Task: structure prediction
Amino acid sequence: MTAHITPLIIGNWKTTPATLKDAITFIKNLDKKYTASKIKLPKKGYYLAVPEVFISEIVKCSVHGYIGAQNVSGISLGQTTGETIPSQLLSTGSTFTLISHSEVRKRGETGDERAHKVALSLQSKLLTILCVGEQTRDKQGNYLSIVEEDIKQSLSLVSKNLFSNLVIAYEPVWAIGGTTPATPHECFEVVIAIRRALSSLVGIDYAKKVKVIYGGTVTKENAHLFIQEGGVDGLLIGRASQTVSSFMEIINICHGT
Ligand code: 13P
Result:
């Protein structure tokens, strides 16, 4: 990561916490610690992808973060039950959305749905975080072409002028929710493949505008390694973003690195 770039520190709350009251208490405690930090932090220095029903209330009480969603629909306004479209997210104060997290893919999201989600989200001006990552690794390195192909297909409907609002989150599925993250070296190798795929799609000038981040068992102990050696512009954090103290430590570490 180049020193002058502000790292993207994104927490993914998944299906926590249990209630809106708990979510508001979390944000108030986090912002209190943020204000008291000894590190020089930007006015807004974290992102939280929260359960969708909490977004509008959390937006009202969060001072130092950007609040977003964990998924969005790629269908248009109209007669479909149980989906939320980008304009609806924006209107509740959401500034970003994750798309195609592996836990969403596992529930049957198709490549075509993914391509529409990414395109509509970017057209609506949401910061759009597309998650990609291999299920397992093989010795031949096929996982690199799997990730590259996924990116090409997922971005097939996107105009290159919108790439500046796109983030690719590299989340190897085998590293999510476990105890073993990728090494910074393993991460770096895939970041290069991601950048290669982006360049082949739209050319280097547009590809350079895309931020690439890492997720999968990020902790306060390993966060700095990905920023310093993993070639990424930020982190996507599950469990460690779900307690105030560990999330705040990661924010401090990354902004101070
Ligand atoms: P963990 O950090 O809990 O492994 O989760 C990663 C993740 O899924 C973030 O989107």
